[in-house]
């Protein structure tokens, strides 16, 4: 049976694959039918809404027909081309009133006018004017030239001729309108006396199209009876060429093409309404169902696979457990060519053969185990109550005395041999470990605590032991022979191995006082004066003064203030290390506030001070940290002074550019310029004079006269027009200023400039 194990697994696997294929196949068929049905329902729904839009649009277009009939049959308007010109003054007024009455009854047409060809007159519901004034000043169509308006819109014969959406500018507002033109009288192509032009805002149709579902996700097109695109929600105004012929041939219906759902219908007026909706929008719900179906199918496949696995291995459970236990112990996989029995036999033989090798490797790991135990013991993580002589002897540990003390040695990170972390620094610590182990001999053990710290656990006699000679020898060898500085903190003597962690804490506390005694000092815990004051002197007034000095770039004053604070707090030597660190970090916090307030980035600071907090915290003594704070203070002050010069130059250039850009406005003055830049007029005037050597008002006048000279020499504008274009309300003040600066009047200057230009061209 074991030899047929692989074939059994293959049979079970194929059986479950067949079972899984059945629901997958049904799901695929169901999804396909559901997707087709969903597209058909969506298409019918979209076409129904499109039909509603078409019906409303047809009714709206009938309003245009009613307006045309009212205008064409109105007696006051019909006489416009039958009365002589001398009698039309009164008739024009009556015609305008008639158009006003007709307009009050229209809602779909936003505005309209009548153009009389023979008189070249425009009649609107509110006025009578000529064609040039109407289209050039009152109603401007940027997309239609005047020649095109006269030839196409007002010149040809029209019977309800529509133009696509055109941009219309009325006063300061802009809107998009659809134009419809009808020649008057109706039906007379030979004797055309005028043209009725109606303007319909595109929002009239956009409001209808918004009623269609997915209108915002697709594209809508409206075509007139001549198959021109009158309106499009896509903004392109062009119907895709690959669909155009087929759509225009059909009356109405829907279809699916590539990745789009297409619906189209034709109105009574011959207009065609077309909707293009991406397939992914329509099938969004179907895709959600598909994702859930795939997730459920995946869960079913996973559950079926687990069930098959359990059923196949149920009879092999004892052998399987033994095999897994052996593989876990050996941390290896079973070879493919072996069955379970052969694998168990081979594993037992290999285990017996490896037992001797394991014993040898265990002896090699004892120093690592001992170092780990000593580290945990000093940190208070070892269960000292459960330690016995046998367990200590297993790790090669033997203490000759019951009293202990800890000596903590720290390498100075600024030493020439120490680098930015890595294996090189660990190698130095291991070297110091070996040197220290030779010095202490059998009276203690060394343990690596951190990257630059080494702890020596010493077993001393009950009467204590003088470590002066040991400490001096260790410092002399390390500093003189290897040029490395070390600081040493030594705890008091305590009884019992359980007190080792307390000794380590005392050594750490003693080592903290190196910020006061120096980076290479030896500090005994018994000699620490722990009666130091628990506060430092750094008043809020002094902090505000330091901030003001740095913000103003007064570097010397800021450095002097730092020296005074250091002397006040650290000179007496009674402050604790914790308070000393707190003082320096408080000073660092003040400088960080200034850096944040000035928005200084890394690019404004030297490379060594990219991270100010890390830079200052790296100091090993009070003098070192003070020097680093001074370096940071100098860098901030230098950045302030440099930024102040750049800011003045930028402000001066901004003032000049603002005057050049706004010299044409007659409201430009010293006060308006000061308001724009958020400053007082007195400051702006004095600053500009100091930076450029000329008064701001004189510079503004110079720019205006310079622009006026160009306009006088190169254009046909009148003196008044030139004066207004350069910011003068009247020509009187302009002429006075021009003559004062140039010595001649603007008219005389124009004559001289034009005569000089003629001579040059000749």
From TrEMBL:
Residue stretches making up the HTH araC/xylS-type domain: 653-752
Keyword Signal among UniProt keywords: no
Domain of life: Bacteria
Regions crossing the membrane: 12-31, 291-312
Keywords: DNA-binding, Membrane, Transcription, Transcription regulation, Transmembrane, Transmembrane helix
Gene3D superfamilies: Homeodomain-like
Pfam hit, one: GGDEF_2
Domain spans labelled GGDEF: 402-527
Family matches, as PROSITE patterns: GGDEF, HTH_ARAC_FAMILY_1, HTH_ARAC_FAMILY_2
PANTHER family attached to this UniProt entry: ARAC-FAMILY TRANSCRIPTIONAL REGULATOR (PTHR43280), REGULATORY PROTEIN POCR (PTHR43280:SF10)
Name of protein: Helix-turn-helix domain-containing protein
Classification lineage: Bacteria, Bacillati, Bacillota, Bacilli, Bacillales
């Amino acid at each position: 049976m074991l030899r047929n194990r692989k074939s059994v697994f293959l049979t079970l696997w194929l059986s479950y694959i067949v079972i899984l294929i059945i629901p997958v196949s049904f799901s695929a068929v169901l999804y396909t039918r559901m997707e087709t049905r969903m597209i058909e329902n969506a298409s019918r729904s979209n076409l129904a809404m499109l039909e509603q839009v078409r019906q409303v649009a047809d009714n709206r277009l009938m309003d245009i027909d009613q307006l045309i009939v009212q205008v064409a049959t109105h007696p006051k308007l019909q006489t416009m081309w039958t009365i002589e010109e001398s009698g039309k003054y009164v008739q024009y007024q009556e015609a305008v009133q008639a158009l006003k009455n007709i307009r009050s009854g229209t809602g779909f047409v936003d505005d309209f006018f009548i153009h009389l060809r023979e008189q070249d007159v425009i009649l609107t519901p509110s006025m009578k004017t000529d064609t040039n004034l109407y289209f050039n000043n009152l109603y401007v169509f940027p997309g239609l030239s005047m020649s095109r308006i006269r030839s196409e819109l007002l010149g040809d014969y029209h019977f309800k001729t529509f133009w696509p959406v055109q941009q219309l500018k009325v006063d300061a507002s802009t809107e998009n309108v659809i134009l419809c033109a009808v020649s008057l009288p109706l039906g007379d192509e030979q004797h055309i006396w005028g043209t009725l032009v109606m303007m319909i805002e595109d929002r009239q149709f956009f409001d209808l199209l918004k009623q269609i579902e997915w209108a915002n996700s697709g594209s809508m097109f409206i075509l007139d009876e001549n198959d021109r695109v009158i309106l499009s929600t896509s903004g392109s105004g062009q119907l895709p060429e690959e669909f155009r012929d087929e759509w225009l041939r059909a009356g109405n219906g829907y279809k699916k093409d590539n990745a789009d759902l297409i619906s189209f219908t034709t109105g009574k007026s011959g207009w065609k309404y077309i909707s293009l909706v991406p397939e992914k929008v329509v099938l969004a719900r179907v895709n959600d169902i598909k994702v859930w179906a795939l997730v459920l199918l995946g869960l079913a496949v996973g559950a079926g696979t687990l069930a098959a696995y359990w059923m196949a291995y149920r009879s092999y459970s004892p052998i399987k457990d033994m095999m897994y236990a052996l593989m876990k112990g050996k941390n290896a996989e079973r070879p493919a060519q072996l069955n379970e029995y052969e694998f168990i036999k081979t594993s037992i033989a290999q285990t017996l053969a490896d037992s001797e090798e394991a014993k040898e490797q265990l002896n090699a790991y004892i120093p690592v185990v001992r170092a780990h135990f000593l580290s945990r013991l000093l940190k208070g993580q070892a269960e000292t109550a459960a330690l016995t002589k046998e367990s200590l002897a297993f790790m090669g540990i033997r203490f000759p005395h019951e009293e202990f003390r800890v000596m903590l040695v720290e390498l100075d990170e600024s030493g020439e041999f120490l680098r930015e972390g890595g294996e090189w620094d660990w190698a130095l610590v291991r070297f110091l470990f070996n040197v220290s182990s030779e010095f202490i001999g059998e009276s203690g053990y060394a343990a690596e605590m951190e990257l630059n710290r080494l702890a020596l656990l010493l077993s001393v006699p009950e009467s204590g032991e003088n470590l002066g000679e040991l400490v001096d020898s260790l410092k002399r060898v390390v500093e003189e022979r290897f040029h490395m500085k070390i600081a040493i903190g030594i705890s008091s003597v305590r009884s019992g191995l359980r007190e080792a962690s307390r000794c380590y804490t005392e050594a750490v506390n003693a080592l903290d006082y190196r910020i006061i005694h120096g980076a290479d000092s030896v500090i005994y815990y018994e000699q620490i004066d722990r009666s130091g004051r628990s506060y430092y002197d750094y008043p809020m007034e002094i902090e505000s003064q330091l901030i003001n000095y740095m913000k103003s770039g007064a570097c010397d004053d800021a450095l002097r203030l730092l020296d005074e604070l250091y002397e006040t707090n650290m000179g007496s030597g009674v402050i604790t290390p914790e308070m000393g660190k707190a003082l320096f970090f408080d000073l660092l916090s003040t400088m960080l506030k200034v850096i944040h307030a000035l928005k200084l980035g890394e690019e404004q600071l030297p490379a060594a001070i990219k991270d100010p907090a890390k830079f200052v915290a790296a100091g090993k003594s009070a003098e070192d940290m003070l020097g680093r704070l001074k370096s940071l203070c100098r860098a901030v002050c230098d950045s302030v002074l440099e930024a102040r010069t750049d800011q003045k130059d930028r402000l001066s250039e901004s003032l000049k550019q603002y005057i050049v850009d706004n010299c044409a406005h007659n409201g430009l003055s010293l006060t308006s310029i000061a308001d724009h830049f958020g400053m007082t007029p007195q400051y702006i005037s004095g600053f500009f004079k100091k930076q450029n050597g000329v008064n701001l008002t004189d510079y503004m006048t110079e720019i205006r006269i310079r622009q006026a000279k160009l306009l006088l020499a190169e254009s046909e504008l009148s003196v008044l027009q030139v004066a207004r274009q350069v910011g003068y309300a009247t020509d009187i003040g302009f002429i006075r200023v021009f003559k004062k600066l140039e010595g001649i009047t603007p008219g005389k200057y124009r004559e001289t400039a034009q005569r000089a230009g003629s001579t040059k061209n000749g």
